[in-house]
Amino acid sequence: MTISTVIPPAAPSIDLATGRLVGATRHYEKRLKDLTGLYEDEAAFDALAVTIGDEVVYEVWEYRASERPGDLVFGSSVMKPGSVGQEFFVTRGHQHLIADRSEIYHCVRGSGVMLMEHPDGEVKALAMTPGVIAYVPPDWIHRSVNVGRDTLITIFSYAADAGQDYGIIERSGGMRVRVVQDGRGGFRLFDNPAWKPHR
C-alpha cells in the first residue's frame, strides 16, 4: 500500500450548543421553500412559505474521508422547531441506495422522532431525547422529525458507500404515517391517505 492510499486519522469536534461540526468536509442547508411536497397541508405550506420560505429548517454537517466500503461518514444534523399546519417539521428522509446499510442517530439536544418505514409497509417511530441513540436497521426508510419546542440536534454515522435514495418517499406519496400535533403538547401518528405500497 502506497502512502497515497492511506486515509489519515482525523478528530473533528461538535459544538453541542449549535450542532456545528468543526472540521466538516461538507455542509448543506434546507430552507422551507426547498421542502415543497413534503407536507399534507399544501395551503398551510404555501402560506408559511410566503413569510419564512427563505429560513433554514434544517442543516447538516458531515465528515467524509472516503467512499470506500468499510469506511464511515459521520456528522451532525440541526433542525429548528416548527410545523406546517398540524404536521411537525421533518427532514426529506431517505433509504440508502445500498439498502442493506444501517445508520445510527444520537440525540444530544431537543425532542424528536426517528420515523422509519420498512419497504413491506411496517412503521416504527422512535422517540429521541438527549442520550438516546436511534438505530436504523438495513433497508428501513427514515426521516427525523422535531416534535419539541427546542432545536433538535443529532449526531449520525453510516457506511461511507451507502448513498441516499431521496425519491423513494416521493414515489410512494409520502411515508405511510405523518407525525402531527396531538393537541396536548405531544405528537401522534396520522395515517397518510396518499401513501402507496413500495414496489
Could you outline the blueprint of secondary structure elements for this entry?
Elements: E1 13-14, E2 21-22, E3 26-31, H1 42-52, E4 56-64, E5 72-79, E6 83-84, E7 87-88, E8 103-109, E9 112-117, E10 123-128, E11 133-136, E12 141-146, E13 152-159, H2 167-171, E14 177-181, E15 187-191
Antiparallel strand pairs: 1-2, 3-4, 4-5, 5-13, 6-7, 8-11, 8-13, 9-10, 9-12, 14-15
CATH superfamily: Jelly Rolls
Average pLDDT score: 96
- Main β-sheet, in a few words? 6 strands, antiparallel
Helical residue percent band: under 10%
Count of strand segments = 15
Describe this structure in words.
Helix content is 8%, strand content 39%. The longest helix has 11 residues, at 42-52. It has helices at residues 42-52, 167-171, and strands at residues 13-14, 21-22, 26-31, 56-64, 72-79, 83-84, 87-88, 103-109, 112-117, 123-128, 133-136, 141-146, 152-159, 177-181, 187-191. The strands form five sheets. It has a six-stranded antiparallel β-sheet with strand order 3-4-5-13-8-11, with no helix packed on it. A three-stranded antiparallel β-sheet has the order 10-9-12, with no helix packed on it. Strands 1-2 form a two-stranded antiparallel sheet. The protein is globular, with a radius of gyration of 17 Å. Strand 1 and strand 2 form a beta hairpin. The mean pLDDT is 96. The chain contains two helices and 15 strands. It has one domain (13-191): Sandwich (Jelly Rolls), CATH 2.60.120.10. By secondary structure, it is mainly beta.
